[in-house]
Every structure is written in structure tokens, then in C-alpha cells.
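FORM 7B: Structural annotation worksheet

SECTION A. Query
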Amino acid sequence: MKGFVLTEADIERVKEVAWIMQQSLKSHYTIAQWADKVKLPEKRLKRAFKEVHGAGLYTYLRNLRMEKAKEMLREDKPIKVIILYVGYKNEGNFSKAFRKVTGQTPRSWKAEAN
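SECTION B. Predicted structure
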């Protein structure tokens, strides 16, 4: 990105946001809240995060959630438990996100994974 220089401090702050995401998959922070937590302007956080992780904040979080969901599906956890653990309010929204990431519904993915 033209004119954008990623600093070590930016990288540390981005790592902190990623750590927060990993520790609390069901949290629903806004970009403004993440930016405030790490004391970085929103625009800079978004650019730095994408530069470091190759994905935007919400895409990265969705992918983290889906990796945890797949792990829990392999452990034979009930869908309702998984949905709550990874921060979705209902099965429809969860299934849509899961399909976007894996190309399959959670049930069909689970059937193939076992």
C-alpha cells in the first residue's frame, strides 16, 4: 500500500489483537474497540492487520472461529454448544459462515471428517 510503513510497534499491536481474538472467540468487538484496546487508529489497525495476517480483522476472526468449530465437530460436540462457544447466535448464521469457509455445512463436513 502506497505510503504505508509498518512499524514494529504496529506489528506488536496487531499480534495483541490476534491474541485477544484467540482468547475470546465469542466476543463481538468492533474495529473501534480493538483499535482503542491497542491504542492504534482504526485505519492503521486495519491496514497493519491485513499486512501482517493477510486477511482483514473479521475474516481472520471468522477463520479462527471455524477452525475451533471444526476441532469441536471432530470431538463430537453438539452443534448448539459449538455455536455458542464460537460466538454465533443461531445455527443459520453459523452454518452460513461455516459454508463460506469450508464449502460444506457443518453436518456434511463432520460426516466426511469422521
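SECTION C. Observations
The chain has a mean pLDDT of 94. The radius of gyration is 16 Å.

SECTION D. Sign-off
Analyst initials: ____
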